[in-house]
Amino acid sequence: MSGELLSYAEAAAIVSSFVRGLSRSRLAVERVGLSNSTGRVLAEPIVADQDQPAFARSTRDGFACRAAEASAHEFLTIAGATHAGEAPAGPLPAGAVWEIMTGAPVPAGADAVVMIEHVEREGERVTLLPKRSIAVGDNVVAQGTQARQGDALLSAGAEIGAAQIALAATCGRAELTVYKRPRVAILTTGDELVSVEQETGPGQIRNSNAPMLAVLVAAGGGEPKVLPTAADTAEALDAALRDAMDADLLLISGGVSAGKFDLVEPALARLGASFHFTGVRIQPGKPLVFGEVPRGAASSLPFFGLPGNPISSAATFLLFGAPVLAGLAGAKGIGPRFVAAQLSRATDRKAKPGLTRFLPGICDFNPAGGGLPQVATVPWHGSGDLPAFARSNCFVVVPEDTSSLDAGTMVKILML
Ligand code: AMP
Ligand code: MG
User: Fold this and answer.
1) In the Cβ-directed half-sphere of 39, how many Cα atoms lie within 13 Å?
2) H/E element, 322
3) CA distances from 168 to 145, 179, 293 (A)
4) Whole-angstrom Cα distance, residue 132 to residue 65?
5) Ligand 1 centroid vs 346 CA: distance in angstroms?
6) Residue bearing the CA closest to ligand 1, atom 10
7) Which DSSP category does 315 fall into?
């Protein structure tokens, strides 16, 4: 860490402009089955193979009619019936209506559908109830209203979720071309770390960042590759970094604060790294480092040096690493997805001036009595407090130079 530290907004802007500079055309693609495509990013447009709807469809059970005739409130003869799935019928004879079900094609000649609840029926004749009216187009979605055959409905860069899968299915797409998941190397550093399977000796702790970052990476659309933990020596780091160079993104945990054994920045510098920033005025996560290591003529490996404390690692990955990962995965959306919630309790007053804080919080999305999502910060003992972190479901954003926020304040939160 050196010089004037950037504000959160400045650091976030640097990450955004890095992501905007990524070229999607250079990303590798693959074909996946529709049902395996959730969470992936489209690498091709989805084009309408037909008009949507492909025929004028009724949105109600009722009677297709000519609105002008039905508006006379006289009995009209039921000339036939069309169920959903049947071919379009018609033409509708003059002075007649056509019984029709929701989703069925409206017969040629009809220009509206009267709801079944709005007619009086006498045998094979119906009339519009006196208090009801009908106008051209009522309860009919005309052919092609939603899309025309050949329209590009989604473009490369769209994230694929339930709605996009439904649209692709409607367009007859059983397979999609998506970007390959970026390979994310996760390198934890620290002489004190042992793996989850091991017993801890005096002064040792279990490596919790490796499995945590692996799930954050997977959830963010990446393919995590956890590397063996590197010891706090220059030689161990140099060797570990050499093994990480074929990844698309490198996350290094630990070793970036100003301590004597914080050797990560010098090791990256030995590889010719350029540093976009070293340190951000945030809490937790102030020592965060972002940069790129050159690799061959045309490419570079972006990396984050995440502070080793578990909550710092999680926060800085979500705030800065995840947007870069999303960009490398081909997604268009830039930046973390904050949502609004209302504070149910005032935040503490322990603010350090000039730091944007991201405090572990619990958001209740369905508060008793309804109303807005309510969020409260969780009491915690700093950025190593995993029990407190595990009780939380979000980070509450406390803006720079705000000592405390009152109950009732609307705040931004970042979901975990
Ligand atoms: P560092 O950023 O390396 O100075 O580490 C800061 C704190 O985070 C120290 O207390 C470390 O023991 C802890 N820490 C570092 N790496 C990990 C890890 N992979 N899992 C859990 N705690 C860690
Ligand atoms: Mg360390």
Assistant:
1) 11
2) helix 322-328
3) 18, 16, 39
4) 14
5) 30
6) 309
7) H
Nearest ligand to the C-alpha atom of residue 309: 1
For residues 211 and 325, give the distance between their C-alpha atoms in angstroms, rounded to a whole number.
17
pLDDT in the model for residue 222:
98
Query: Residue 257 Cα, ligand 1 centroid: separation in angstroms?
Result: 10
Ligand nearest to the CA of 203: 1
Q: Token pair of 58, please?
A: 């009724």
What residues pair up with 29 in beta bridges, in sequence order?
179
- The predicted pLDDT at position 401 comes to 83
273 backbone dihedrals φ, ψ, rounded to 5° = -60, 145
- The β-bridge relationship of strands 249-253 and 299-306 is parallel
Q: 300 — phi, psi (to 5°)? A: -145, 160
Ligand 2: centre distance to CA 265 (Å): 12
**Its pTM surpasses 0.85:** yes
**DSSP classification of residue 87:** P
| pLDDT single digits (tens) 119-134 | 999 999 999 999 999 9
Q: Which residues of the chain have pLDDT under 50?
A: 1-2
Q: Are 397 and 358 in contact (CB under 8 A)?
A: yes
CA–CA distance, 375 with 410 (Å, rounded to integer): 9
Provide the pLDDT for residue 351.
Answer: 67
**CA within 13 Å, CB half, 368:** 0
- In 189-245, at which residue ranges do the beta strands (DSSP E only) sit? 193-194, 205-206, 223-226
Identify residue 179 by its one-letter amino acid code: Y
Q: Please give the Cα distance from 134 to 122 (Å, whole number).
A: 19
**Residue found under tokens 């042992």:** 194
* CA angle 373–377–381, rounded 5-degree value: 160
Which of 1, 189, 193 has most ligand 1 atoms within 8 Å of CB, for mutation?
Answer: 193
C-alpha 250 to ligand 2 mean position (Å)? 17
Atom 12 of ligand 1, residue of closest alpha carbon: 192
Q: Count CB atoms within 10 A of the CB of residue 375.
A: 29
DSSP for 93-104, please give it.
PTTEEEEE-TTP
CA distance 335 to 30: 25
Q: Which residues contact 353 (CB under 8 A, 6 or more apart)?
A: 401
